[in-house]
Amino acid sequence: MMQAQSTPYGPVANVYDAFLTLMGFKRGVENFLDRVHFDLPANANVLDVACGTGLVSFYLARRFPSASILGTDIDERMLAEMERLAAEQGIRAPRIRTALADINTPDRVRYRDTNAEAVLPEASFDCITASGALEHADLDRALAGFKRLLKPGGTLFTLNVRRNPAGAVLAMAYHFRPYGIAELRNACAKAGLEDIRVLRLGAEDFPANLSRIAIVARNR
Predict the structure, then answer these.
(1) Burial (Cβ within 10 Å: 0-12, 13-18, ≥19) of residue 87
(2) Could you read off the pLDDT of 106-133 as tens digits, one per residue?
(3) How many CA atoms lie within 13 A of 65 on its CB side?
(4) Residues 28, 31, 32, CA angle at the centre, nearest 5°?
(5) Residue 173 burial class via C-beta count within 10 angstroms: exposed 0-12, middle 13-18, buried 19 and up
(6) In 10 A of CB 119, how many CB atoms?
(7) How many domains does the chain have?
(8) Which one of 37, 62, 79, 177 is most buried, counting C-beta atoms within 10 A?
């Protein structure tokens, strides 16, 4: 049976969303996402990998009301808090579901609502998002998994920790390694993704702009 793992974020899961809100980070990310063109079809299937307490999942659920979103994470405490927040906002399955999954094997999940394990079908998602996630992953392995799960023409959106002084502070605090922009672009190309673009956050996205940068790519 797939086992949950403890992460540095789990012990603060019940205050994580409130902390992001208080610091203005949540508002900054959402402001940036407003300017991202996701190009989702009606009734899109979206996978939010390493979803944490659901910042990106909830944003997409509001912006694309007909989309079905699966949020996955390796820490069940984060998923439990996401479920609590979803209920608080009146967002329920099938619009949003949660599942336990390792970012390095994103197709292997254990659904929280049924406790059933499953292998997600290839080419089943119109969009995959990963925010603050690739820093904790085997980059090549994770991206290869994302490519398998994306439909032809599907979109990958990643919001990554920048390799700069602000990113270095986060890396020391949470024990991860930020990837450089060239590394991310090259890894996406190696995985078989195309139309790879770097999206930079602006001053209007403060404070998220201090430590984040986005990559958008498409599946062939």
Answers:
(1) exposed
(2) 999 999 999 999 999 999 999 999 999 9
(3) 1
(4) 90
(5) exposed
(6) 9
(7) 1
(8) 79
In whole angstroms, how far apart are CA 194 and each of 45, 150, 167?
20, 12, 26
Give the global pTM: 0.95
Inside any domain, residue 129? yes
**Distance (Å, whole) CA 158 – CA 164:** 17
- The answer to whether residue 124 sits within a structural domain is yes
95: which 2 tokens?
A: 């619009």
Rg of the chain's alpha carbons, rounded to an integer?
Answer: 16
| Domain enclosing residue 175, as ranges | 10-219
* pLDDT tens figures, 172-201: 888 888 999 999 999 999 999 999 999 999
- Is residue 5 included in any domain, yes or no? no
Q: Which residue shows structure tokens 């899961």?
A: 13
Element (H, E) at 20: helix 13-22
Residue 3 domain-assigned?
A: no
| DSSP assignment letter at 71 | E
Residue 34 CB neighbours (<10 A): 11
Domain CATH code at residue 203: 3.40.50.150
> 170 and 144 in contact (C-beta within 8 Å)?
no
Interatomic CA distance for residues 74 and 99, integer angstroms: 9
Q: In what order do the strands lie in the sheet with 212-219?
A: 117-119, 108-111, 96-100, 68-73, 45-49, 125-131, 150-161, 212-219, 193-200
